[in-house]
Amino acid sequence: MVDEEGVYYDAARPSRLERLLNDRAGDAAGLGAAEALARWRAERLSKYNLGPDRPLPALRGKILLVDQVAGDLSLQGAGADASIAARIVETARERGVLDRLVLRAHPDVLAGKAQGLLAPQAARLGLPVLEEDRAAPALLDEAAAVWTISSALGFEALLRGVPVTTFAVPFYAGWGLSEDLAQGEFAAAAFARRRPDVDLEGLFAAALLLYARYRDPVGGEPLDFHGAVDRIVDWRDRDAALAGPPLACFGFSRWKQPAVAAMFGGAQRRVRFLGPARPRALARIETGERPVVWGLKDSVAFRDAARAKGLPLARMEDGFLRSVGLGSDLLAAGSMALDGPHLYFDASGVSRLETILAETNFTDELRARARALRAAVVARAMTKYNLAPAAAPDLRAAAQGREILLVAAQVADDAAIRLGGGVVAPNEGLLAAVRAERPDAFIVYKEHPDVAAGARRGGDAQAIARLADLVLREGDLGGLYGQIDRLHVVTSLAGFEALMRGVNVTTWGVPFYAFWGLTEDRATCPRRVRRLDLDALTAAALILYPLYADPLSRCPCGPEDYLAALDALRAAPPAPPRRSLVGRLIRWARARG
Of 27, 288, 411, 554, whose CB neighbour count within 10 A is largest? Predict the structure, then answer.
């Protein structure tokens, strides 16, 4: 809220919210307030949207007395004095409902971060205290009424049709919607400013459609009410989907950890990082935690120790739209996937991605979303790393009418090669096989960016130069796809990127996108028998398998949001973090061969 006149919780003077309610009461129809309020109710939204949303029968028929943090500004602003707790008890006694009161402890009090204003009175009188974690709508489903000093829960209760009694002057009191028991000059002056003929839709419209401003933490663009609801519902759904055993993470570099925590942690799941994947480190796992290893950064001894303890290992890797820049430059990914014991590049077993591809019912709605996402990836020329574009050579002119085949290199000792089920060796082995199969073709060899950057080792440079017609080291693959007749890979992600762009692909290994009827495959994989189209492949690889987080705010987001974020970052790429002296020396040595 931005208020040039006051602040909504300070009833000592008018606020812009108060003016809006006075000026626009009954004018909610033109703002779509009825539809917005209905959606707010149907989505079961609240201020914080935390806690399990399930019934609490012990509250049924009771009066929910809402505690607040002692000393909070909202109490002072509402005119609450030191006697207010005693007056609430006196009112309950006079009405004969003391035995129906249930105190709802403030979440900050339950967390040990603050003291409750009403808690001492409740303890002295032996009132039941609600300490179970519940979402606000679940509480309001059961309560017969709400008594409050000035809590926002009273506002939400009104919007859900629950009778509300106030004992001070919150922003929603004095409009004819609540029973208001505050007395004295402070309350009289505030109530005198407020017209007592506002309806619920008018209150909702003023507070949530006119007074509040919304901005998307993902990308920073302004939102309207419905856009804010979309984002919060998506976060809540994602948090519910992540609910499960806490993650105990091994082998995660420090620079990766914030992104991992953003994507896989939340209100319902904790993420801890426990250092290298060494057998003795397993002793630090707490009961119920699920051990997760980054990629294949473990050993046989670690796996054996986990098996002996009855701990099934999960693994995590980067997603297929990773970043603007290389992981070897210590630039964290904004897309990651959590899998079982076999990651998507491990052809020795079935990964979660392969299961998604083999078993998912790809609905028309999901296919349409995937089709639009693929079109956006192609239109924005997005790839895994989105490196700075380099001037692409004119391959057609160089080929002089010959068939153009592009061979995408991989890091020679990469796990995707070791476990990818390839029938040729990289990278000169792949080149030799392609040359033998198509001796008259114009073959372009594109070096892997990590090798070109000196971060990883490549193949035999002399053999590669002898077998290829053109060797390219710099730039991104994206500028080449439109000029070639076919791409040859062992297991490279370039094959998936090429398929999305309508390029013919031949695989010499068992990448995740092969053997579904979309590629020409030289290896074998008997377990993949389903035929899929490109929409299903895109949906599985970019929507269902990975999670995403905005690279700037670290807020969870969807693939469409992430594409937009990558596009913005590509216009102004971040500087890579500075490496240690040892890291710089290693890279210098590799670059020199």
Answer: 411
